[in-house]
Amino acid sequence: MPTSETSPAGDPLSALSYEEARDELIRVVTELEQGTSTLEESIALWERGEALARHCEEWLIGAKARLDAARAGAATSQSVSEAASE
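^ thats the sequence. predicted structure below, dont judge the formating
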């Protein structure tokens, strides 16, 4: 699931919530767009941004799977209820 890379604070990337990762990604993109970083800093920021984007995408895929499972469970429950009342 989420990657195990670490944040600048040393926390695993997987410990970040979707919102925290998204906010950090926005900060990284803003910093890159300013164009004031050295080449080495820009590469590190790019790599961090890629890792954050992957983490967000994995989180969203997991959330969609959970919603799909909940919908499927609700549809099955409704079908069983309708069959029982017939």
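Residues 39-85 form the longest helix (47 residues).
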